[in-house]
Amino acid sequence: MPLDVLGIIFAIISAATWGGGDFSGGQAARRSHQFQVLLLAAGSGMVVLLISAMVRGESLPDGRSMLWGAAAGAAGALGMAALYRALSRGNTASVAPTSAITCAILPVFFGLFTAGLPKPAQLVGFALAFVGIWLLSRSPSRGEKAFKEGMLQAFVSGIGFGGFFIFMAQVGKGQVFAPILVARSVTLIIALIMLRLNHLPTPRLTSNPMAVLAGVLDTGGNVFYLLATQFTRLDIAALLSSFYPASTVMLAGLVLKEKIAPAQWAGMAACLLALILILI
């Protein structure tokens, strides 16, 4: 199997796993504060990564990879906390795609400065993505103020995840679990600091099982994404991994019975076409 195809497969698996993690995290944030959810998710992910790194026999990454991993962890903490908060407000069909498009565009612009101008079709994809986001935001269901706040948090989460995509792709090749373990450690530290600053209690591990599940799934997505970047280009890996709202929205419709307005269906179709145009 060609390495590029293998990278694409890893990216698609990453998207599916991340979507499940985002849905779980959004549900967990309805029961606990987003920073409590972030702490539990980071902790459960660290356990999985530590065991996996020991089984695979990975040592600590070099200094450069540790710095990139730490930067990815900080960006990921921002993205996760904002997304969990936004999803806890409802409007999953708008929040998840908005976050995804924002974080997908950032690696492409990073490529603009490192690899030159994108193709004309990709530029059309950028424009179509913004149209899709506008359509997705046409049907608030929880009140105009709450909806706008949720969309703002979705943009913030997209910026955080976009930073994670870029930073994590800079780690050295060959290692998988150790760099992500560094990133998760930084996320855990940030979550603890935010709990103290907001005078929130440290949650028990059993207080919110959905948060623990979110951490395991999100960590799985991170692993498959990092594998994807080692077998294919950053922009391809990041953009395909950004399809995660598909599973998030599907779960919201099946489990929560959230209704998706016609304009939002059109917005999702526009976003999907935008991602395809950006990839070609």
Key structural traits:
280 residues, mainly alpha
Please write out the topology.
Blueprint: H1 3-28, H2 34-56, H3 63-88, H4 92-115, H5 120-136, H6 144-168, H7 177-197, H8 209-229, H9 234-241, H10 245-255, H11 262-279
Helix pairs in contact: 1-3, 1-8, 1-9, 1-10, 2-3, 2-7, 2-8, 3-6, 3-7, 4-5, 4-6, 4-9, 4-10, 4-11, 5-11, 8-9
N-C termini distance: 21 Å
Shape: globular
Relative helix content: over 70%
State the low-pLDDT regions, or none. Answer: none
Order of helices and strands: HHHHHHHHHHH
Individual helix count: 11
Overall mean pLDDT? 84
Oligomeric state of the chains present here: single chain
What number of structural domains do the residues give? 1
Structure summary, number of beta strands: 0
Biggest β-sheet: count, sense, barrel? none
The radius of gyration over CA amounts to 18 Å
Q: Which structural class best describes the helix and strand composition?
A: mainly alpha
The proportion of strand residues reads under 5%
Summed up, what is this model?
The chain is mainly alpha-helical and 280 residues long. 79% of the residues lie in helices and 0% in strands.
Descriptive account of the structure:
- With 280 residues, the protein is mainly α.
- The protein has one domain.
- The chain is built from 11 helices and no strands.
- It has helices at residues 3-28, 34-56, 63-88, 92-115, 120-136, 144-168, 177-197, 209-229, 234-241, 245-255, 262-279.
- Helix 2 (34-56) runs antiparallel to helix 3 and helix 4 (92-115) runs antiparallel to helix 5.
- It is globular.
- The mean pLDDT is 84.
